[in-house]
Amino acid sequence: MRIDSNSNRIRDMILGINTPVRLDNGKMSPAINLDNAATAPAFKQVADAIQRQMHYYGSIGRGKGQKSEHSSEIYANGRDIIKKFVGADDSKYTVFYTGCTTDGINKLASALIESPRDMILSTRMEHHANDLPWRERARTVYAEVDDKGRLIIDDVERLLKKYGGKIKYVTVTAASNVTGYVNDVHKIAKIAHKYGAYIIVDGAQIVAHRTFSMLGVDSDEDIDFFAFSAHKMYSPYGGGAVVGLSEVLNQHIPKFYGGGIVELVTDDDVTYTDAPDVYEAGSPNYAGVVGMLEAIKILEHIGFDYIEKHEKRLLMRALDGFFNNPNITLYGDSKNITDRVGILVFNLNGMDSETVANQLAGRAGIAVRHAKFCAHPYVQRLLDYTPTLTCDKATGMVRISFGVYNNNDDVDCLIKTVRDLI
User: Fold this and answer.
1) What's the half-sphere exposure (Cβ side, CA atoms, 13 Å) at 394?
2) Coil, strand or helix: which one is 43?
3) Biggest alpha carbon–alpha carbon distance for the chain
4) Do residue 260 and residue 340 come from a single domain?
5) SS (H, E, C) 84-97
6) What is the DSSP string of 130-162?
7) Which of the ends of the chain has fewer CB neighbours closer than 10 A, N or C?
8) Which of 100, 374, 391, 413 is flagged as catalytic?
9) Pairwise CA distance, residues 260 & 254, whole Å
10) What is the CATH number of the domain that holds 325?
């Protein structure tokens, strides 16, 4: 796809890009979405694909009507599309569909954890979705971050070595939803495997911004489990998926029961199916799957090389507009941004994050996220770097997160509005 320098062609692909919102002064202005890390708007082609497929929609899996067989084929073939998308085009992996990343990680945790004594290694930069499901079911230990907020990979190995093979799973985000740091998950995988642990990767913040492969340079670097959401990648219709090792998935059953996961039920016994079916109890979200598959096709067509370079330019432009301003506090490394997706977090001196977010929306229609972004321990460290810090609900930051459709005008409007606030 040939894209002009202002990304106008991509902007035209987004639903609601020019939808006006009412500002505090009563005027109407096009909304500017800089909250893509929370959820991205839909591609028009995604909405069109869902609408088109609804004309041929039938029950998935066991229906014998023409529409049912059509829908079941798309649903089943989608697993191969997803494996190829995440570089897992290998017979050792299985794909099961989920509602979102949180749903997928919860299903993994409910299946893989066999005892409260099981040990999990997580990190202090995780979203709650990749912390609480493990914390509530198992004994969880945490690798620390440094004073810039980057994960200390040596601390991962320190903990694995300290517990001498007792840690069963290492779970880590591919990219932080707070600072945008991209972790070297293949390096972490190699360390985890060295100590007999599997690796689970939260892919929610990576799939729309950079190409990702489950396979490393050698098998020791391969990722064992990977979860992601479609709503981060321009298909906000409730789709998601987990890609995982078939051999391990087939040895466990998630604590989600219902139709579609059994071979036979008698008065006294149940015979369950293997993965992926046993992880997909109940009627599937076919629309979410259709949208996710279409979004994958569009992102691959645009190209992740372009996406990464474009979002990096926007991030640099925003940082340049904020840098060296004594009234703005930036968090994370604002100079070396090679390992960051298009996310930045900041505060304005003398204003709490909620006030800043309300003012950006009220003055210019700019949507951002504020507070602690479902990553409280991480934000506490970035604010004060005191792990024992207790902060109230109002404590936090303002987050800007870019999408492939954002442009220089969006960034310049943000910078001007922030300066007006100051």
Assistant:
1) 4
2) strand
3) 72
4) no
5) HHCCCCCCCEEEEE
6) GTHHHHTTSEEEEE-B-TTS-B-HHHHHHHHHH
7) N
8) 374
9) 13
10) 3.90.1150.10
Quick check: is 344 in a domain? yes
pLDDT at 101: 98
Number of Cα atoms under 13 Å in the Cβ half of residue 409: 10
Whole-angstrom distance, CA of residue 343 vs CA of residue 400: 6
Whole-structure pTM value: 0.95
Active site (annotated) includes residue 100: no
Q: Does 262 share its domain with 249?
A: yes
Residue 132 has which token pair?
């609480």
Task: Tell which residue, 210, 223, 254, 247, has the closest CA to residue 98.
Answer: 254
φ, ψ dihedrals at 239, nearest 5°:
-95, 160
62 and 106 in a single domain? The answer is yes
Sequence-ordered strand ranges (E) for 180-337: 198-202, 225-229, 240-245, 262-265, 270-272, 328-331
**Rounded to whole angstroms, how far apart are CA atoms 179 and 236?**
23
Does residue 261 fall inside a structural domain? yes
